[in-house]
Amino acid sequence: xxxxxxxxxxxxxxxxxxxxxxxxxxxxxxxxxxxxxxxxxxxxxxxxxxxxxxxxxxxxxxxxxxxxxxxxxxxxxxxxxxxxxxxxxxxxxxxxxxx
Length: 99
Known about the structure:
The protein is α+β, with helices and mostly antiparallel strands. The chain is built from 1 helix and 5 strands.
């Protein structure tokens, strides 16, 4: 009869995980408007961050409990921007790693 002994490390190293950030960049003349959507730091809600040129002191952040509501809000912002003469210059999907 064979006996197998498995050793476990005393502490597990932190697990890095990736979070996807979606970024829309809109342009009108020489102004740009950036809108980002990602999970918040504790992965419990979605953050929709907007950085309008009309607010140089900083952007706004809205929290949503589900992805559907966050995407609906982003679509509403996009419709308003297009109606005001903005065009979508670019869309990015980027993975960032957190510890």
